[in-house]
Amino acid sequence: MNDNYDALNEFIGDALTPALASIEQAAVGVAAEDCPNLILNALATENAILQAARIKKLAGQINVTIHALGILRCLPFILEDGEVIEYVSLGAGNTGRKFDLETNKRIAEFKFIHWKGGPESIRQNSIFKDFFELSVAKTEKHKLLYLLGTEQALKFFAGGRSLISVLSKNEATRLKFRELYGDTYDTVREYYETHSDSVKILDVSEWLPELVSF
Q1: 95: left (phi > 0), else alpha (psi -120 to 50), else beta?
Q2: DSSP 8-state class, residue 187
Q3: Max CA pair span of the chain
Q4: Mean pLDDT by 10-residue block, N- to C-terminus, for the chain (214 residues)?
Q5: Could you give the residue ranges of the DSSP H alpha helices within the chain?
Q6: CA gap 16, 57 in Å, rounded
Q7: Do the Cβ atoms of 11 and 20 come closer than 8 Å?
């Protein structure tokens, strides 16, 4: 199979919808003996379906792949002189490790998602969890949260969304938060204002322009 997906690109053409409409029109009146010509003219080759199947398989792992590639591509810009990686967690979750990256100088979490504004509760819940876990980590190392753009995230942290809502989908984080703080904080803003100095939020967009363009 051709790894550059030429066969699939030829089948799709400039846009899939008009390509399929053209094939549908060409198929009208076609008998069994004419199907090989229909398939040939439609460029519905064996390589095309094999390449589509391969993309489908890869698509289920694409978020983890972007996460891993993003972290690796950021490392040259992050690490300082004398700084050494103690571990890096590239897979789904932190695979038994507390954070995405720990060095002799810092602990860090990464999120390579586009913040578009509006109701994005799942992403907000996830970003708050990362901020919270970094903020309560018992270490003298620098604590960093790296994001693909910070504008929307900072608006969320400055907003009045209730912590009951933010923590509602993650029982372990909710229990840990309540054990540490009880009912001290009601909103995301209250918690962020108290702990913003402990975690630095940085934008990685300039290091990953390939992700920003999509």
Answers
A1: left
A2: B
A3: 76
A4: 78 93 95 95 94 88 90 95 94 76 97 77 93 96 96 93 94 95 96 97 94 78
A5: 6-12, 16-27, 35-41, 46-59, 62-78, 121-136, 151-157, 163-166, 171-181, 188-195, 209-212
A6: 20
A7: no
Whole-angstrom CA distances from 86 to 79, 83, 102, 136, 214 are 12, 9, 6, 20, 32
Angle between helix axes 171-181 and 121-136 (nearest 10 degrees) is: 50
pLDDT at 34: 94
CA distances (Å), 122 to each of 53, 149, 154, 178, in order? 29, 17, 16, 20
Task: Give the pLDDT of residue 110.
Answer: 96
Distance between CA atoms of residues 88 and 71, nearest Å = 9
Cβ pair 47, 2 in contact under 8 A: yes
How do strand 101-103 and strand 106-111 relate by DSSP bridges? antiparallel
According to DSSP, the β-strands at 142-147 and 200-203 are parallel
- Residues ≥6 apart with Cβ < 8 Å to 136: 176, 180
Q: How far is it, in rounded angstroms, from Cα 194 to Cα 1? A: 56
Rg (the chain; Cα; Å): 24
Instruction: Phi first, then psi: give them for residue 2, nearest 5 degrees.
Output: -75, 120
